[in-house]
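ingest -> validate -> predict -> emit
validate: passed (alphabet ok, no gaps, 355 aa)
predict: started
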Amino acid sequence: MTWRYRGLLQWVADHRWHSVAAGLLLLFAGSIPLGYWLGTKLDSVDRDRVVRETLSEMKQEGGSQPPAKYARIEDIPGLPQYTEAEPGQIRATVEDKPRGAPKPAPQLAALAPGELPPWRRYAVPFRDLNSRPLITIVIDDVGLDRPRSKRAWELPGPITLSFLPYAKDLREQAKTARAHGNELMLHMPMEPTGHADPGPNALLVSLNDGDIRQRVVADLDSFDGYVGVNNHMGSRFTAYRPGMEIVLRIFKTRGLLFLDSRTTAQTVGESLAQELGVPSINRNVFLDDDESLGAVKRKLAETEEVARRQGFAVAIGHPHENTLQALAEWLPGVSAKGFALAPLTAALRKRNGWD
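emit:
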């Protein structure tokens, strides 16, 4: 044994540099599994410490704080700020030009005889088109802020509710809103000119034709029972004729109407819809670009004036606190002022002369 040990030492002495290299190689190879094992142990210890501290904090709080409830869209973490326009931008009132001689309502070749397109099938019944000026109230951005959305569909109606396609429990919410006698629409996200975020699956001018079609179809399939679509934001996309033509042709094949929210004066939406034979109508008044209560009430008075002049008016608002309060106070007196509160399809029929 001693002879072998001395022989090994002599070999090491004779091959000093080879021995050093071999030793370093063995040390490096052994450090890899050792380092991995040590890191795993340290990570496990640290993770266990974090878990213990978290559990300790939860026990100390002991349910003293209730789960978070988000009363407003602005309070929901991780979602963009939902507004139709850039901050401080006020959209002008738009009045419709006469259409001339009434043209028959467009028909879908794919429908069976006697079958109605969705814009008529799901319309809230309304017969008295001509005895009084009509006022249509459309509430956009419905579905995300559920407490305020509920307050909106419980307002004296009929009103028209436009649901964002990415709202949770969308089909259930839409069904409940329709059961209250309101008309439903889809609020389709489209690209604005500013920096506001229109939300998931929005239509962008940078998308190719196939992607635009895919996003439109996905939004349209998010729920059913609605009469048509209006744009969420979209001041850039609605001015983009190639994209809007794709969108409106899909609306036509599905028998849907289009409400141009007119978030830009450069929109081609409503005029292009007329060219393609898509039932369409413009927004006349935005109620709450200025969200103060006094401003909303002044816009409601302006809506009345527009209705008197052209026989109908379409006003768009949002589930903001002051908008809901102003509508709750104003809606019960609409009839006494000589107006008829009407769903959007009634205003569309009156504008086009469709009985």
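The longest strand covers residues 134-142.
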